[in-house]
Amino acid sequence: MTEARSGNGPTDAARVHLRAELQERRLTGIRGFVHATLLLAGEASGLGGPSVADLVVVRRATEAPVLRTKAGSLDEADALLRTINDDLARMSVEEFLDEWGHLKP
What we know:
Blueprint: E1 5-6, E2 9-10, E3 18-24, H1 29-45, E4 53-59, E5 65-70, H2 74-90, H3 93-100
Antiparallel strand pairs: 1-2, 3-4, 4-5
């Protein structure tokens, strides 16, 4: 594993300060029913459906969200979480936010 570096020498990997997680999208009432129906239909047909969760990156010290985006289907959510975790392991916080900062909470 490579150590995250900046122009000034070694720095902590972003994963020391940030954590990525999938958070279930909680919809109630008619929105929840429509979401569940579209999700089941999309997964059954292989066409995909609405996002099953949000991918959220939080600061470990405060639990404050830094980034949030819809994670997509089950397969997409898994792939996105793996990609984010890989980047957290190899980048500094500054590099990570430069790369992914467009996904605001």
